[in-house]
Design brief:
Length: about 270
């Protein structure tokens, strides 16, 4: 059986890249819902339904475990999928998100001053307040959490404009409130943002620690599998990678290759 990676678009490829590097012997199937991307400004109900359809597609492709490699889907669909849909339809399968591993990784971080954590993400992710809610469940209410929606960053990155002067101005505008609040840890709460990590670091300052979700999620998955032998033992170990998309256009192939770092051959997925 496979490990499935679902994303609304391209950013999840940065998660898969980190996971497959750390755990190369498993079999992975990636699905990007590029035909309906981005999810960031959609309603919670629509995000849930699109995510459910994507997860079901991966389960039908013999995935034992699916990771929602999308902050928006993790924030607005994961809990309901786990507590309602999964139990009724696929009780022997598992769905994991990427927000909880990142929140758990914040706890052991030591800072010279009081820990002030900033989170940047899509409008839907920030409005969901998922990072704050998960942090408070784990005692993180003692630390100040400052959130900033950055709705223009995903289209800038996907259009290839993230290195232009206008993009630099937009990044500075989004980061400025966090800088004024003197955050000393900054969570990249969207899987697109690792592509502009250096620019974000230069704006927020070299002394601020950036949390890149890819590495965090990869190590969290490794730990999860070590604790759940019933899942790990069912997984195929042949180092196979398969890529699916709901929009197999030239643009999708080109952008995906940029996120992945080399050419990707996609199969078209019919998700409904």
């Amino acid at each position: 059986m496979n490990i499935g990676i679902f994303d609304s678009g391209f950013g999840g490829l940065t998660i898969l890249k980190a996971i497959s590097k750390l755990l190369p012997h498993y079999s992975y199937i990636y699905l990007g819902d590029n035909a309906r991307s981005p999810y960031g400004d959609r309603s919670a109900d629509r995000i849930y339904e699109f995510t459910r359809q994507g997860v079901e597609f991966l389960f039908k492709k013999d995935c034992k475990l699916v990771i929602l490699a999308c902050n928006t889907a993790s924030a607005l669909a994961l809990r309901k999928l786990q507590q309602e849909w999964l139990i009724k339809n696929y009780p022997d399968r598992r769905i994991l998100g990427i927000i909880i591993p990142v929140v758990e990784a914040l706890a052991p971080i030591q800072t010279k001053k009081q820990k002030r954590v900033g989170v940047i993400g899509t409008r839907a992710t920030i409005l969901s307040n998922a990072y704050k809610k998960e942090s408070e469940k784990r005692g993180g209410a003692l630390h100040e959490l400052i959130q900033q929606a950055c709705p223009l960053l995903v289209p800038l990155i996907e259009e290839g404009w993230h290195k232009t002067p206008p993009a630099a101005m937009i990044i500075k505008k989004y980061i400025r409130p966090l800088k004024l609040k003197q955050v000393n840890v900054l969570v990249l709460g969207c899987t697109h943002y690792p592509l502009i990590k250096e620019k974000i670091q230069s704006v927020i300052g070299k002394n601020v620690r950036l949390i890149d979700p890819g590495s965090v999620v990869a190590h969290s998955l490794k730990s999860y599998l070590s604790r759940h032998a019933e899942i790990e033992s069912a997984l195929t170990k042949n180092s196979h990678l398969a890529f699916f998309t709901t929009d197999a256009s030239e643009r999708v192939a080109s952008l995906a290759s940029r996120f992945w770092g080399s050419h990707i051959s996609f199969e078209l997925a019919k998700v409904e």
